[in-house]
Amino acid sequence: MMPELGSFLLCLALAVSLLLSIYPQWGAARQDSRMMAVARPLTYGMFAAIALAFVCLVHAFIVNDFTVAYVAANSNTQLPVYYRIAATWGAHEGSLLLWVLLLSCWSLAVALFSRSMPQDAVARVLSVMGMITAGFLLFIIMTSNRSPAPCRISRSTVAI
């Protein structure tokens, strides 16, 4: 259940980051304050979805969920818990997801601490950060095998 939730959250984060890429930028071009005001809530949603997706991946490593191909390839039952947590970002998908999490943390920081900046500047900055995040998320989603084929047992390996 957790791996599926993590995949869903990544897709949700991609959708939110695409909205963040387009909607506030369009509002800044049209000088529409309502469209620009959506940048901060979209950033909060993007951060929440990415952070929860990362937590789902960490959980899969902690509980040794070997139904996830990434966990099966980068962990084993003999590793201490702190090594399993560190193995989360030890290969392609996990390290990119960590990068996306850090990028969304910076986006969140901009959204939280930019109250004194002009609204159109904040909307444009968050929009560009959403574009970069969307690119990374698209790369992660398109290059990761979220549903590998089940293990097949041939008759020659089964003792009869």
UniProtKB/TrEMBL annotation:
Membrane topology note: Multi-pass membrane protein
Assigned GO CC terms: plasma membrane
Pfam families associated with the record: Cytochrom_C_asm
Spans traversing the lipid bilayer: 45-73, 94-115, 121-142
UniProt-listed InterPro entries: Cyt_c_assembly, Cyt_c_biogenesis, Cyt_c_biogenesis_CcmF
Annotated keywords: Cell inner membrane, Cell membrane, Cytochrome c-type biogenesis, Membrane, Transmembrane, Transmembrane helix
UniProt-annotated location(s): Cell inner membrane
Gene: ccmF_2
Cytochrome c assembly protein domain sequence ranges: 89-149
Sample GO molecular function, one term: heme binding
Name of the protein in its database record: Cytochrome c-type biogenesis protein CcmF
Primary role: Required for the biogenesis of c-type cytochromes. Possible subunit of a heme lyase.
